[in-house]
Amino acid sequence: MNRPDPKNVKQIACIGAGTIGGGMIAEFLARGYSVTAQDPGKDALASLERLLDQAWPILEQIGLTASASRERLRFTTDIEEAVAGADFVQESVPEDLELKVRIYERLDELVPPEIVIGSSTSGFPMTEIQRRCKYPERTVVAHPVNPPYLIPLIEIVGGEKTDPAVLDWAVSFYEAVGKRVLRMEKEIYGFMINRLQIALFREALQMIAAEQATVAQIDDCLTHGLGLRWASMGPFATFHLAAGDRGLGSFMDLHGSVEWRAPYVTETPLPDWTPELRARILQQAEEVIDGRTIPQMIEERNDTVIGLLKLREASRANAAKKHLGAAHAA
Amino acid sequence: MNRPDPKNVKQIACIGAGTIGGGMIAEFLARGYSVTAQDPGKDALASLERLLDQAWPILEQIGLTASASRERLRFTTDIEEAVAGADFVQESVPEDLELKVRIYERLDELVPPEIVIGSSTSGFPMTEIQRRCKYPERTVVAHPVNPPYLIPLIEIVGGEKTDPAVLDWAVSFYEAVGKRVLRMEKEIYGFMINRLQIALFREALQMIAAEQATVAQIDDCLTHGLGLRWASMGPFATFHLAAGDRGLGSFMDLHGSVEWRAPYVTETPLPDWTPELRARILQQAEEVIDGRTIPQMIEERNDTVIGLLKLREASRANAAKKHLGAAHAA
């Protein structure tokens, strides 16, 4: 199959321009790609422009590619027009399986079979999405993390009919974009990112429903506790540092084998999403939001994440230099 | 009951001086308290000294209280000697319920009933720990997050026999120490912090056992994805920013009500902690550790967390200033 060179993609069609689609559009533009965005929504273009206004100063701080320009964006409500001439298609329509299946059926007809189509789905297996395609082998999940222009990770995983060479293509393409690619070999609902966060959210929801915790307390657990550690290192690296000089194995023997089951985890069914629970969460969330507007909170988050990415790199280099020095001196 | 003023504690007895106990000792010393540390371990004093050598430069960066000094530390292997004259007792013996029950029985005899005893237990309810005490009303869970001298959060929760006034006392005391206090009204195993992280770890372990993910991929999910967000904002604040300008309620309606159950979460029993699973995790963890020593990794983490705490404060202030300005101009 004569696919475009993944390192030399020029023209990208972005189907769906909401929070995630818009975030990918921002990132692609910042990396110098030409983008045709498609979205049938009445206010889609205006809200995309607002998203770009917000993202662009951040992307300038991260560093734009020389050829990057917001002028390279075209917008249309028409799918056929959007995909014409595209070297790659990123689909980010709402998370509704039947909608995705219909969109893929249509894209399959419109897009030449050598062109790869990646889905921003946050949880559906590609096997489900590609099931009515004539050329399913070029479809792949490419799930970014919100906001895509700021969070490096992207999950790549194929469906039953995806050609493994298309996975390779997608990995090369997103690495060229500058993403941190997580390639999964097995297809599961929610991939990795959402399985991990859903597990945590479920437990949070259980505690809130049982009045054992409030929304603000859950958020405090992350921002003043767990999130500070996970900003620096993942859970296994964190364990490795939690047992003196005995390391990960010793920590896991002590805690992982004993505590990771009831009564430390709620095993009753997840509470229903009732109007009462919804109202409780929204009311408690006021304490977290603390009068800040959404744009203000986004700006605050963006500043912190950019600073953190730089900080981490410096911390790693400093510690390595110092400990290498110590090892040499010893 | 004529308890010491929680804002005027001078002398603290720390029972157990391992990773957590030692971390609390470092923090208490940095805040100017006199500490008598007790630990029966053969190498306990030497490893406490190493921990303090590592923590002290960090605590200097955070800022020592004027009266802070490592000279205010005394060490003993004898519990009776340790608690003599203490205004407060912090217990951090290994996480073994029978051991804790025995230690509390002994502390209960040795420590005057007006003196509060706080436990660093990472998951046992105080009701279980205090069950053989004559004065259980002064015992309370005070669970810090490793490393205590760096991570602000501490969970405070009483047992059935804990006097609510003792909870108030503990909250005042730890606020004077400078902790971010999370006071729980209901007693559950694992409190909040560990319930949340155990839920996430369980899912990670399921994926690793099923060969759906590797240790390094799980850690990548946090350090290049989820952890970047949670370093800035908690999960509910994150949701609030993930639905355009529609906010939290809209996001939860779409995702929370549908996706937070199987097939997005593994509902099979947690795999047994077999030698095979243990070996797989340790082998895969090599990729995460990447040749770094534990002291090097600790230094790297400490640097990042300190920088992040400052960064976050600045990001919040900057965004508030800018958006307040915008609101005034509008």
Largest beta-sheet characterization of chain A: 8 strands, mixed
The residue ranges of chain A in which pLDDT falls below 50 over 5 or more consecutive positions are: none
Considering residues with a beta carbon less than 8 A from a beta carbon on another chain, report the largest interface and each chain's count: A-B, 117 and 117 residues
The quaternary state of the protein chains shown equals homodimer
Q: What class would the helix/strand composition of chain A place it in? A: alpha/beta
Total beta strand runs of chain A: 8
Order of helices and strands of chain A: EHEHEHEHEHEEHEHHHHHH
Q: How much strand of chain A?
A: 5-15%
- Write down the overall geometry of chain A: globular
Strand line-up in the sheet with most strands of chain A: 3-2-1-4-5-6-7-8
Mean pLDDT of chain A: 93
CATH homologous superfamily label of the largest domain in chain A:
NAD(P)-binding Rossmann-like Domain
